[in-house]
Structures are given as C-alpha cells and as structure tokens.
C-alpha cells in the first residue's frame, strides 16, 4: 500500500534543499560519517598491534578481544537502531559520538596511566635502517603481561562498541529519510563515497605516526580518533536537526523473536554459513595481515597502506563487474567471487616462499600481500553487491525487510571465528618476536636485512595463509552444492 503522505513528504524535502539538491541534515550526517570512519579504520587496522605492543596481550588474547569487538559492532546495530528510533536520530548521534569520544580517549589515557605506574615503558622512535627500526621500536614490558591491568581495556572496548553500533543504523537511516525517490540513488552513492574517503584517510595516518613516534604512535592514533568523533559530536549538536522526534517502534522482545525466526530458516542459515567462509578470509586484512607483514617484512612495511588497496580495488571494479554479471544470476556471481578467494590467500602465502628478491622496491612478503589484497577486492566486487539481492529472495514473501535486517549475521560469526583462528595461527607459525629467545631474535633481524634465512620459528609462517586457502576452497565448493540443492527444490 502506498503512503498518501509520501508525495507531500518528498515535496517538503525538495523545499528544504540546501546544497546540490540535498538537505542540511543529509550533509551533516555524511560529514560526521566521514569523520567516524576515519577514526574507526585508523584504530581498527592497528587494533591487534595496539593490544599486543602497547598493552602486552598475547596473539591469542589480542585476536579474541578484537574479534569480540568487531562481532559486537555487527550484532548490536539492529538493537541500537530500534532504540535510536525511539529517542530520535539527533539524540542517538549525540549519544554515539559522546561514547566514541570517551572510548577513544580511554585508549589514549590507559597506556599513559600504565606507564606512569611503572608497568610499561615505550622505546625510542624508529631511526632509519631495517635492523635499527625493529630494535629502536621495541617496547620494554615490566610485568604487564602477567598483570590484570591490561584488562582495563575491556570496559573501554564496550563503550566504543555501543557507541559505534548506533552509527551504522542512524546514518543510513538519515540518508533514507533525507532523500527522495528522485535523488535517493545519488544520495547513497555520496554516502558510500564518504565511507571510503574516511576509511582511506584513517588508514593512511597510521604509518606516519608509527614512523615518527615508534610504538607510541599507536597510542597517539587514539587521540586523533577521539578528536574526529568530538568534532562530529559538535557538528551534530549545532547543525543536525531532526525531522521527527522519535517514534515507538519494535520492542527488544520483538527483535529477538525476529532473529529466532531467521535462525529457523535452514536455507538462509546455510547461505550465511557458506558466505561466512568468504568473510573469514577477508577479515584477515585486519586480524592477521598487520602483524604478519611487520614480522616477516620488517618495521619499514606499511600494513595500514596495504589495507587501503582493498577499498580502492572495490571502488574501481565494482560497477564494471556488476554490469558484466548483470545477466548472470546472483548465485553465479557469488560463486565466481568465492573461487577468487583461494587465489588471494595463496598469493599472500607466496611472498614467504620467494626468498629476498625485492619487487618494485618492496619486500616479497609485502609485494605479494598487495597482490593478494587486489584479488580479495575483486572477489568482494563479485560477492557483496549480489549477496543482499540473493538473501532477500530467500526470505518469505512480505518479510524481506525483516530478514535483511539480520543479513550481516555472517560478519558476526566470521569476526569471532576468523580473529580467534588468526591468534592461534600467528602464535604457532609467526610468533611475537618479543616472546623469542635472544638468538632467534638476532637471526630474524639478520634475515630481515637479507643476510640469512628466517629462523625455524618463522620459516613456515606462510602456512597461516594455506589454512585460509582451505577455508576459501571449502566455502566455494559448498556454494556450488548449495546452488544445486536450492535449484532442485
């Protein structure tokens, strides 16, 4: 049934046009989205490094905490979005950015308090050469590894998680409310551009901070993030006006009931579990890649910059690939993407099997990591745009919107499984150098300088990526089987 008020609502929006055919709340929402993404991606691309190098977490501990952190951000938006509908988007954004500012500031303050208590001291900044980089960048721990103080990060993490969960639902909801049928597609295109500009800028700032301040740069990065979210809070406070003051919507009990309804749909759950395999591998961009590259290619590497290759590839290829596959089924497009993922993971493994021959001025581990990330971006262009389309077709008629609200369950599962698996694999095949004996550390430094092979503890580091090659292959084959079964029924 059409809403008789739709035409009058759209006319009102057109009358409120402020710039380029969009309202002021639209531009404020997109502006604060850029700031929030810059803060989030700057912190998250280095979160496991922060937890290990600054707070003394083991690889398994840091991966588990980061996995829970990321998983929560995919599970909570459905619930926080319902609350945002009740209190109004302006109040929800103020709450979100207030919590985010407190949380990021907490990540900046916590290490300072630990250092003042004599529990940890930070080394001198990076000085230039490869060997000096790693030695000069060393953090000296004085008991934090076995103390309880590092767990003070957990409440800080939950503050950021809750604040961040509001952003996903409120900003996209604002774009929907502040656009008309005539400009909605253009509005979401601008929103997507803001997300990518913010993500790119946030990741880009990590390397300069690390190279000018050493490991302490991971601490200062949180001050940058807190500044971004504080600026967003100020923008919302002064410039964002609600078109509505909040309305009563679904209760939390109704949302839980809807979730259970989705979980009882065997066809949907099977699809979610299969696609989870893709996101487990894709998530290694944050779970494994930063530590792996720094340990195997040296402190002069730039994992945060390499991570930017993924969104750049998606932006450059997604329109062409979607158009190219437009006459193919969504399942066919996703299957092509799933078979690209093993190539991506294998390329990432190949760098450690190529000796010390630099390519385009890059260590082979770094060079092949970039190649693998390019393939990963291509796979995402085949899969992501068509997944929601296919997922919606599997939902019962009339309930597509309800089911799409839970379409990111795969990200929740993959964050937990992918990060925790990464922690154990790093600990086994590419361990934290500070846990190694002096002889192993010295041999590793010589290997990084091209003066010998990696010590035995790191010789098989590429096995990590072989595990994810296996995950990708199994997921791709499972998707083919799924497609045939669905077609038969």
Can you describe what's shown?
The chain is an all-alpha fold and 489 residues long. It has two domains: 17-249, MFS general substrate transporter like domains (Growth Hormone, Chain: A, Up-down Bundle), CATH 1.20.1250; 253-489, Growth Hormone, Chain: A. It is built from 24 helices and two strands. The longest helix is centred in the C-terminal third of the chain and has 31 residues, at 364-394. It is globular, with a radius of gyration of 23 Å. Mean pLDDT is 83; it is low at 1-5 and 124-138.
Shape: globular
At the first level of CATH, the class of the largest domain is Mainly Alpha
Output the strand order for the largest sheet: 1-2
The CATH homologous superfamily of the largest domain corresponds to: MFS general substrate transporter like domains
N-to-C series of helices and strands: HHHHHHEHEHHHHHHHHHHHHHHHHH
User: How many domains?
Assistant: 2
Mean pLDDT: 83
Q: Which terms summarize this structure?
A:
489 residues; mainly alpha; Growth Hormone, Chain: A; two-stranded antiparallel ribbon; 24 helices; 2 strands; 74% helix; 1% strand; globular; disordered N terminus
């Amino acid at each position: 049934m059409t809403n008789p008020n739709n035409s009058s609502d759209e006319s009102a929006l057109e009358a409120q046009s402020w710039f380029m055919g969009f309202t002021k709340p639209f531009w404020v929402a997109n502006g604060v989205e850029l700031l929030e993404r810059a803060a989030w991606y700057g912190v998250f691309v280095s979160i496991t490094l922060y937890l290990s190098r600054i707070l003394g977490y083991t690889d398994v501990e840091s991966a588990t905490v980061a996995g829970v952190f990321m998983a929560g951000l995919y599970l909570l938006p459905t619930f926080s979005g319902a609350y945002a509908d009740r209190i109004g988007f302006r109040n929800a954004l103020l709450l979100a950015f207030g919590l985010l500012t407190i949380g990021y500031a907490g990540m900046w303050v916590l290490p300072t308090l630990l250092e003042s208590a004599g529990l940890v001291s930070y080394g001198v900044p990076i000085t230039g050469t490869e060997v000096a980089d790693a030695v000069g960048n060393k953090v000296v721990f004085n008991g934090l590894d076995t103390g309880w103080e590092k767990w003070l990060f957990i409440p800080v993490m939950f503050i950021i998680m809750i604040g961040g969960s509001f952003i996903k639902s409120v900003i996209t909801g604002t774009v929907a409310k502040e656009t008309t049928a005539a400009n909605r597609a253009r509005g979401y295109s601008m929103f997507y551009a803001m997300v990518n500009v913010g993500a790119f800028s946030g990741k880009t700032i990590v390397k300069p901070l690390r190279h000018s301040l050493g490991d302490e740069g991971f601490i200062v990065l949180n001050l940058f993030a807190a500044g971004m979210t504080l600026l967003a809070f100020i923008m919302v406070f002064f410039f964002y006006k609600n078109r509505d003051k909040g309305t009563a919507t679904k209760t939390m009990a109704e949302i839980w009931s809807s979730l259970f309804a989705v979980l009882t749909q065997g066809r949907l759950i099977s699809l979610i579990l299969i696609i989870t395999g893709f996101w487990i591998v894709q998530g290694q961009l944050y779970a494994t890649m930063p530590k792996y590259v720094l340990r195997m290619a040296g402190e002069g590497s730039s994992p945060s910059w390499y991570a930017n290759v993924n969104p750049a590839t998606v932006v450059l290829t997604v329109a062409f690939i979607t158009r190219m596959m437009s006459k193919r089924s969504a399942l066919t497009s996703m299957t092509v993407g799933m078979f690209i993922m093993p190539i991506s993971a294998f390329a990432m493994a190949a760098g450690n099997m190529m000796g010390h021959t630099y390519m385009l001025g890059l260590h082979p581990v770094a060079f092949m990591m970039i190649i693998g990330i390019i393939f990963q971006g291509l796979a995402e262009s085949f899969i992501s745009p068509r997944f929601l389309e296919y997922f919606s077709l599997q939902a019962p008629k009339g309930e597509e919107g309800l089911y799409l609200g839970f379409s990111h369950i795969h990200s929740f599962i993959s964050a937990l499984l992918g990060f925790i698996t990464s922690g154990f694999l790093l600990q086994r095949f590419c361990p934290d150098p500070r846990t190694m004996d002096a002889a192993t550390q010295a041999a590793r430094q010589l290997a990084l300088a091209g003066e010998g092979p990696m010590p035995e503890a790191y010789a098989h580091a590429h096995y990590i990526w072989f595990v994810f090659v296996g995950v990708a292959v199994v997921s791709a084959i499972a998707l083919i089987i799924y497609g045939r079964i669905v077609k038969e029924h």
